[in-house]
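User: what does the whole thing look like in 3D?
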Amino acid sequence: MQEKVILNGEDFRRALTRIAHEVVERNKGGQEVVFVGLLTRGVPLAQRLARNIRELEGIEVPVGVLDIGLYRDDIPLGPPPQVRHTYIPGDITGKAVVLVDDVLYTGRSIRAAMDALMDYGRPRSIQLAVLVDRGHRELPVRPDYVGKNVPTSRDEEVIVRLTEVDGRDEVAIRKKEAP
Amino acid sequence: MTWHHHHVLDLDDFSREEIEAVLETASAMKEVLTRPVPKVHTLRGKRVFSLFYEPSTRTRASFELAAKTLSAEVVGITAQVSSVVKGESLLDTIKTLEALGADAIVLRHPEAGAPYLAARYCRASIVNAGDGAHAHPTQALLDIFSLRQRLGDLEGLKVVIVGDILHSRVARSNIWGLKALGARVVLSGPPTLLPMSFADAYAGVEVEWDLERALEGAGAVIALRLQWERQQDLIPSLEEYVAFYQLNAQRLSRARPGAPILHPGPVNEGVEIDPEVARGPQSLIDEQVTNGVAVRMALLYLLLGGAHE
Amino acid sequence: MSDLILISGGRLMDPGQGLDGVRDILVGKGRVLWIGHGPPPQEPEKVLQGRGLVVSPGFVDLHCHLREPGQEEKETMASGTLAACRGGFTTVCAMPNTRPPVDSPPLVEFLKDKASREGLVRVLPVGALTRGRAGKELVEMEAMARAGAVAFSDDGHPTGSRIMRQALEFSRYLGLPVMDHCEDPEIAQEGQVNEGVVSLRLGLRGMPSQAEEAAVARDVAVAGLTGGHVHIHHVSSQGSLEHIRRGKEKGVKVTCEATPHHLTLTEDSLLAPIPYDTNLKVNPPLRSEQERKALAQALREGLIDAVATDHAPHSLVDKLVEFSRAGPGMSNLETALGSLMALVHRGELDLLTLVARLTVGPARILGKELGSLKVGWPADVVIFDPDREWTVDPQALASRGKNTPLAGEKLKGKVMATLVGGKAAYLDPSLKLEVPESRKAKI
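Assistant: Here's the predicted 3D structure for the full assembly of 931 residues, as structure tokens:
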């Protein structure tokens, strides 16, 4: 299937630098921020954001890993989805938790992630950073930080590749294969 | 992830991949248990009945806690105080629970094969919590999980199971599970409680009546409970059993240093295991209990967490 | 009304007469009238087309539980004998472990009477060996024999040595066999299955074959001591066969039977495809493949004199329970031939020998003029198709006992017609009793 690349490595770098600035600005320096990346690709993105902030401000922002398997509401027929480890660094009560994910679509994953976070404590605020917002929300979820807005149709899929996972950075769109 | 079971009856039909899926999921579940509020609503709306025809503290509490941690509805039935006393058959009871909307039934029964009967005639998932001397798959899985957490890969590990093997469902299920993961299983115990035919019945399993020889270089030891009521005709005396088969520090020194000790509980301290060993640094007995909840959560999740029509 | 029936063109296999070849056979007034080729001495009123089929004497079952009186929920005279004739059995020996047990002359009369009114095949009563089957007091063997008992057995319960000796002394005098369910209870220890690798894996208490062998050895010794005739029920192990062989060699009057399931099934079925299937629970238990092969070989040689079904129908209540609580036994009158034909099809047994073990073998043990189609003998005939395939459907069985482990199995060998005393007791829908052309013209 024909893929159309809409973001490349340079775009990534610029977007993540900008987002890091925005996070720091919005959260008055970033001392109380905790990044929580959604497995799988939200995690390397969160780590990159933390690295950017370290270079910018010299502060260490903790990075957590969140598996939403136990909280999903869109389970397909068949065996349940694999659950993997969640690791939340320290107590999140009173902190500004920034959820990080690669693509924001219906908003259901983020709803599940928020439910999960609530089981760990009472954050002062939960914010959302995504690399790509492709629209078609089904729940009232809105991102605070967006790398790029990419309008798509429902018969397209958005493919995100990261160096840490796939060997290169790029975002591509292609039509969904006929079943 | 590989998972094809509607029931958990024994580990003899679990592939290595399926056991790995349980262990991985149990690991994630163990993390849930460490939270300040250890509860997730994953199995909200699911109904889990525990139907116990034999007494139990740890297994039953463990299952019910596992189900509740996942927010399932849990109802426990003790056969001695139920209609079973009035003569209700196993299948009738199962059908009643099914009519009450059971998604899963955790069954412990004194007759081997009872869960297989239930599974044939019931749409709910049957989880075997022990059937006579035949199988106790969740105990074996939590034993294996405990070993995996402490030692990592179990491939080639020499695991000694010692005690009344003949009547032990824990031993039988562990044999299947450990072999599937590539461990080397050695059974030990008095000859009347460990016929040599075990070596024929299970491919690759060794029988060694001399416990000290069995423990040479062992990487882990599972001690089984001596059930005096069942064994009176088969061993001359408790003292003799203790003299030759008790797991104590001196015997344990023949095993690899730091080899973990497991026991399904309840422990007869001073009988099958010396109290010092039971409470010593190599003992995983307490962790087994925590791990039991995590493993049972994992199984309930794998059985009930998917969508059904 | 006993028609003159001609069964034409079938392969007549009658080992009791040494016959095996295409023959026509004419029956009338309940007897065999003529066997031969070409036009029969009398004109038949009806004709059965036997071409491509085997025609043999009706099978004789030495061991069958009809459950009347007292356990009619499991089987009745009517349902049991219907099952028998569908299975090709024209004579069955009814076991006495009923409620009450058949342990006195009036009860023998009762059974004979019920059989004559409701039975579709010949039912020969076997008397209990001891009063109430309690193993303590011998029954009135002579009186019961006069009332019609053809043998004595406490089947299901083992027999003590004192009783066995007494019974065999009488047996010698009466000329009737004492049949024994050979099981030493102190060795058997209430085992549920065969003691071995399978019982170990299943976590079920097993009973070793030696529990049977010890009792067989005792029976052979006491039969030798007394000169009586002991018949060993449902032999299941090589060790037992060895004792029987030595007894026969020494001239002891010992005979034995084996069941279709012990000849064709093994304990491995308990592991898969349906673990703990209570339909496989039977006493003596199914054993290893090695034992099964030895039984088949002994059947071939004639060391095992007869096949006997041990047809044991049970209701669902008895079988849909935990394995150790399930009643032992299989419903197998209707599947006996089909399952045994597997031995023939794979070369373990030849067809003529199988027919012999189902006909003349058992008949000789009873000492009756049955099991062969000699002219003048009762016209008990079975016509079967050794190659016809059919699938076992428990719900379609005539027996009230649906407890067969062969549900859904495809068997190759089917009874097409059964005549008892010259009357068609069972006819497969594809066979018709036709009016011969010559008669049609006259009508």
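In plain terms: The two ends of chain B are 21 Å apart (CA to CA). The longest strand of chain B covers residues 125-131.
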